[in-house]
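User: I'm designing a mutation panel for Peptidase A1 domain-containing protein and want to avoid disrupting the core. Could you give me a predicted structure to guide residue selection? Please restate the sequence first so the numbering is unambiguous.

Assistant: Good idea. Sequence first, for numbering, then the predicted C-alpha cells:
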Amino acid sequence: MLRAWIPDLTPTASPTRSTWCTCDLSIGTPPQPVHLSLDTGSDLVWTQCQPCQVCFDQALPYFDPFNSSTFSVLPCHQPMCQQNLDWSSCGKQYWGNQTCVYVYDYADNSITAGHLDTDTFTFAGADGVGSASVPGLAFGCGLFNNGNFQSNGTGIAGFGRGALSLPSQLNVGNFSHCFTPMTGSEPSAVLLGVPTNLYGNIGDVVQSTPLIQNTASRNEYYLSLKGITVGSTRLQVPESVFALKQDGTGGTIIDSGTGMTSLPQDVYNLLHDAFVAQARLPVYNSTTAAPQLCFLVPPQGKPDVPKLVLHLEGATLDLPRENYMFEFEEAGRNITCLAVSAWGDLTIIGNYQQQSMHVLYDLANSLLSFVPAQCDRL
C-alpha cells in the first residue's frame, strides 16, 4: 500500500524514526546486500539498480546486475510479467531484447519503473546463524524511483497476496513480523515459514481473526472489522460501513506499508468527536501535525486519554496508548496527538498501531493472529 507516514515533528517529536520494518538480505552471486522496506499491501519486490536514472539516496551501493553471475532478465512473454503486473511491456535494453519492463505505483503516488529479472536471494538464518540461498526469484530492478521511500533503504519487499510477493514466490505457509517501538532504534523481526506459534509476553493470550479474500484486489490482507470503542463509547457505526462490498471496494485491511490507521471520513468524525468529548483536554490546532487531532498537555505530566479498541471478528485489539497517541513539543508546549486519520472509503490498520505486537499471517489457514510482545527479544 505504501501510503501514510507519521509527521516529521521537530525538535522533540515522536516517533523519532520512520515507520518502516525493513528486511536485510542479499541478491546475486556473489551476494550484494539490499535493505528492503516490508509492505504487506503490495506484491513487487524491487531494489534500485545500476545504472540508476532517477533514484533516491541510499547508504548501500546500487545493485549491479553485471556483477552477479546468476542474474537473468525476465522475457516479457513470461506469465510472471504478463499476468502479475498492472502495467508491463516489452523493452529493448543493452542487456537484451524483449525485456519485461514495468511501471509500479502506490497509493501515495510513489512510483518505481524498471525491468523484471530473476536472481538468487540469500537470507540470514535465525539469530544470525547461517544463511539460505534461493535461486530464480523474480524482482524489479528499479531505474526510475520517486516518492515516499525510506531514505536508508534500497527498495520495497512486497509481502502481499499476489504471485510476485516474497512469501508467494518462496511458497511459505506463513510469515510474521514484530515492530519494535517507533521511538526506539532496535531492529524489527521478520520471520518466514516458521512454525505457526507466536512469541509474545508471558501471560498474554494469542488472538486470531479470519483473513478475507477480495477477488477484485489480489494484494491486500482484508479483515472483518466489527466496530470501534473510544473510552466508554462504542461508536454508532453499522458493521456494513467496515465490510467489503460486492464490487470489491471498501472493507478493512491490515498494512505494514501505511503509517497511521485511516478510516472513512464519517467514521473518523465520530472517532474525533468521541475523543474530544472524553479526553478533557484543550484541543490544540498544531501547524506541524495537521491534520491530526491534537491536545494541549498540562505541564505536570502525561494525562489519561480515552482507550481505543478495535473489535475484529473473533478478536479484540485493545491498543496501548503508545500505539495510537504520539507526543511532541511545539512553541514550548507539550502536545499529544491521535495517530489516526481520514482517507477514502477503505479502513487501514497501519503499522503505528502494530507496534510491540507479534503479528502472524497464517496463509495456509487464512488467519491473522497477534499477541503483545517485546519485539527486540524475538
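For picking mutation sites, this is relevant: The two ends are 26 Å apart (CA to CA). The chain is about 5% helix and 40% strand.
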